[in-house]
Design a protein that fits this description.
This protein has 425 residues and is of the alpha/beta class. 22% of the residues lie in helices and 25% in strands. It binds flavin-adenine dinucleotide. The site of flavin-adenine dinucleotide (FAD) has 36 residues, from helix 1, strand 2, helix 6 and strand 21.
C-alpha cells in the first residue's frame, strides 16, 4: 500500500482527502487524516455569530461526518514531522509513516504574541471573533455595549479572510444604527495597512464605504502592546488609540510543529511553489490551504480552487508524470456591508479585485465590488454549499482559474464612464 498522510482535517484537508479518495485506487492507497479535535467548524460563520445570525451549534459538525468512509481519521496533536524518515510524531508518542505528506493545518490567531492582549481585559473589553469561543463571548459583549469607543483592530498581515474585520465593522455600525445608539458610539478601524485593504481599487471602494459610515481609520498602525489598565493600543511609533470595546484580530500564525520540524518561515507557513503547492524543500511534501506561504488571501475559496488544481497534479505526480496544472491564486469572497447588503471580490495573483459581474458576464447574478442584496444572500447560501458541495469534494460548476470575462478596469474617478457606483437592484 502507498501511504498518503494529510495533516489537519479542516477545510482544505477534508476537501483534499475526500477528493483524492474518489480518484485514487483504494486497493493501492491508504489515506489517513490527522486532527487534534473532533469538531469541524464553519469559520466564516464566526463573523455573523456576534450579531445573532448564527448560534454556535449552527457552525459545528463532527469531523467523521464530513470525511468519506475509507479515509482513516486519527485524533491526536501533531508534535513534529521528520522529513528525513518520512514520519510524523504525535504528542502522545504515536508515529505515522507516509510516502506523501499534505500539510493542511491552517493558521491560528495568537493573542499571546502581543504584550497585554491576554491581560486583565481579555474577554472583558478585549475580544476576538476568529475563534468559536471568541465570537460567542463577543456576542454577549456587543449586546451589553451601549455607548463609547469601539475599536476594530488588525494586528498584522497576513490574516485569514482579510476582509472579515472590515465586514465586522460595517455590521457593527449597521447594528448600532438599528438599535438607535449610533450617535453614542465612536468607531475606529485600526490597521497595519496604508488603507482599508491590500489592493488599490478595492481599498478605494472599501475606504469610501468607511467614510460614508463615519468610521475613522488609523492606518499604518503596528501595535507594540496593549495597556489593559488604560485600555489603550500603543504602536511602535508611539501612537495611542484608546478603546472601551476592542475587537482585535490577533497575529495569525501557522502551527508550532511546523517550526519545530524546520519546515516553516518566520510565521510558520510552509514555503511552496505557488503554482503546484509542492514544498520547496521536499518533493513528497505539499502544503495546501492557509498553511502555505502562497501570496493570495488565506481563505476557504482559495483552498477550494487550489485543491481542484492540486488534485489533478497529485494524480500525475504519483505516476511519475510532470505536474501540468497551475494554480493562479484565484480567490473570491463575499463582503458583508450591513443593512442586508454585500459585495463580492474575485481576484488572483496577478489581477486585483475589479468591478463587474460574476460568474456570468453582464448577468451575474453577483455584482463585483458593488453592494447588493443578492451578494448578501450569496454569503448566507455559502454555508450550505460549504457542507454539501465543497467539503465532500463534489464538482462545482465554476472554473478553478480566475476569468477576466465580466470584469472591467475602472476609468479615473472624474471620467463619466466610471462604473464604481453603488448598484440599487
Ligand atoms: C472570521 C472568519 C471569517 C471567514 N470568512 C471566510 C469567507 O467568507 N470566505 C472564505 O473563503 N474563507 C473565509 N474564512 C477563512 C477560512 O475559514 C479559512 O481560510 C479556511 O478554513 C482554511 O482552511 P485550512 O484547511 O487551511 O485551515 P483550517 O480549516 O483552519 O484547518 C486546520 C486544521 O488543522 C488542525 N490542526 C492545527 N494544528 C494542529 C496540530 N498541531 N495537530 C493536529 N491538528 C492541528 C486544526 O484543528 C484544524 O482542524 C474566514 C475565517 C474566519 C476566521
Amino acid at each position: 500500500m502507498r501511504r498518503l498522510l494529510v495533516l489537519g482535517a479542516g477545510t482544505a484537508g477534508t476537501m483534499v482527502a475526500n477528493k483524492l479518495s474518489r480518484r485514487l485506487d483504494r486497493a493501492a492507497w491508504q489515506i489517513t487524516v490527522v486532527d487534534q479535535d473532533d469538531e469541524h467548524v464553519y469559520q466564516p460563520g464566526f463573523l455573523l455569530l456576534p450579531f445573532g445570525v448564527y448560534q454556535p451549534d449552527d457552525l459545528v459538525k463532527p469531523r467523521r461526518s464530513v470525511i468519506r468512509g475509507g479515509v482513516d481519521l486519527v485524533r491526536g496533536e501533531i508534535d513534529r514531522v521528520n522529513p528525513e524518515l518520512n514520519e510524523v510524531l504525535l504528542g502522545d508518542g504515536r508515529r505515522l509513516g507516509y510516502d506523501y505528506l499534505i500539510i493542511a493545518t491552517g493558521t491560528t490567531p495568537r493573542p499571546d504574541q502581543t504584550p497585554g492582549m491576554l491581560g486583565s481585559q481579555w474577554r472583558k473589553s478585549i475580544f476576538d471573533f476568529y475563534s468559536l469561543d471568541g465570537a460567542t463571548a463577543l456576542a454577549g459583549a456587543l449586546q451589553e455595549f451601549d455607548h463609547g469607543r469601539l475599536v476594530v483592530h488588525v494586528t498584522d498581515m497576513p490574516i485569514k479572510c482579510p476582509v472579515a474585520p472590515l465586514e465586522f465593522t460595517f455590521l457593527a455600525e449597521a447594528a448600532f444604527r438599528a438599535r438607535g445608539m449610533r450617535d453614542r458610539v465612536e468607531i475606529t478601524y485600526v490597521t497595519p495597512l496604508p488603507g482599508a485593504f491590500t489592493k488599490p481599487i478595492a481599498s478605494q471602494q472599501l475606504g469610501s464605504m468607511l467614510d460614508d459610515r463615519k468610521i475613522a481609520v488609523e492606518p499604518d498602525f503596528m501595535v507594540e502592546r496593549i495597556d489593559p489598565e488604560t485600555k489603550t493600543l500603543i504602536s511602535y511609533d508611539e501612537r495611542e488609540v484608546p478603546f472601551d470595546l476592542l475587537v482585535t484580530v490577533p497575529l495569525n500564525m501557522g502551527a508550532d510543529y511546523i517550526a519545530r520540524s524546520g519546515l516553516g518561515d518566520e510565521l510558520n507557513y510552509v514555503p511552496v511553489d505557488k503554482h503546484t503547492l509542492q514544498s520547496m524543500a521536499h518533493g513528497n511534501i505539499f502544503a495546501i490551504g492557509d498553511a502555505s506561504n502562497i501570496p493570495t488571501s488565506k481563505s476557504g475559496s482559495a483552498a477550494h480552487f487550489s485543491v481542484e488544481i492540486f488534485t489533478g497534479n497529485f494524480l500525475r505526480h504519483v505516476q511519475g508524470l510532470p505536474m501540468t496544472g497551475t494554480f493562479d491564486g484565484h480567490t473570491n469572497c463575499f463582503i458583508e456591508a450591513g443593512d442586508g447588503r454585500g459585495m463580492l471580490i474575485d481576484f488572483n495573483y496577478d489581477t486585483e479585485p475589479l468591478p463587474g459581474s460574476y460568474p456570468v458576464p453582464g448577468l451575474g447574478p453577483f455584482g463585483l465590488l458593488r453592494e447588493s442584496t443578492r451578494n448578501h444572500w450569496g454569503k448566507l447560501a455559502f454555508r450550505w454549499l460549504y457542507w454539501h458541495v465543497l467539503l465532500p469534494g463534489r464538482p462545482l460548476p465554476l472554473p478553478a482559474h480566475m476569468s477576466m470575462a465580466g470584469k472591467h478596469v475602472p476609468k479615473p474617478p472624474d471620467d463619466p464612464d466610471n462604473v464604481m457606483t453603488k448598484e440599487q437592484p
